[in-house]
Amino acid sequence: MSFVKFKLPIINIRGNAMKFLKTAAIAALLASGAAHASTELLTNGSFEQNLQANGTWNIYSNLTGWTGGAYGIELRNNVVGNAPDGVNFVELDTTANSSMFQNVSTVMGQNYTLTFKFQDRPGVATSSQGLEISWGGSVVGTVNNSLGGGWQTVSYNLIGNGATEALSFKAIGTSDSLGTSLDKVSLTTAVPEPETYAMLLAGLGLVGFAARRRKQ
After folding, report:
1. Are 121 and 98 in contact (CB under 8 A)?
2. Which of 35, 53, 66, 103 is least surrounded, with the fewest CB atoms within 10 Å of its CB?
3. CATH code for the structural domain at 56-189
4. 33 - beta bridge partners?
5. Where are the beta strands (DSSP E) in 120-197?
6. What pLDDT, in 10s, does the model give residues 129-150?
7. pTM of the predicted model, to two decimals?
8. Which residue range or ranges hold the Ice-binding protein C-terminal domain (predicted)?
9. Per-residue pLDDT tens over the stretch 148-160
């Protein structure tokens, strides 16, 4: 009898542990699913929140969500090109090379995906164009000479430091008011790779298999 009394608590503890593992695996899977439906972190990434009449352009000190540099931000609607998203797009070589930035609150170690579209100004030399992209004050890349002269999509992986970081774009070509166009800027939390889901599902299956073995 003493032997039976000794074994029953062990079975109970293992049963509770198994339930905990199953719950943890399900929670992890659900959390990954929530991450998949990532939220847009930027305001006015396609510059549609600022009204600009069709066939016109203007230079603004700032745009909704964006702080302009020394020479402002040039906003265009169907002028020297057409926006790939909505009707507005921007150029940062205004009267001279300028810039713009937006501050983003980040999570320490979190991966973020930055995407945007850029386009050469038609009929203008490559040396006159180009954009530099910075994150938290550090340059992460430059773009120039879009493929075929059309709108080209670029993507970067960024990492948060747990503080507010500035996402910045700056014109870097010849400062002659003829620069690269920019539109559809997006920043989201990075979506888990398919392998992540596979590992979670496999782990959940192993937990279930172990539970069935113990019942037998």
Report:
1. no
2. 53
3. 2.60.120.260
4. none
5. 131-135, 138-143, 152-159, 164-171, 181-189
6. 999 999 999 999 999 988 888 9
7. 0.73
8. 190-214
9. 889 999 999 999 9
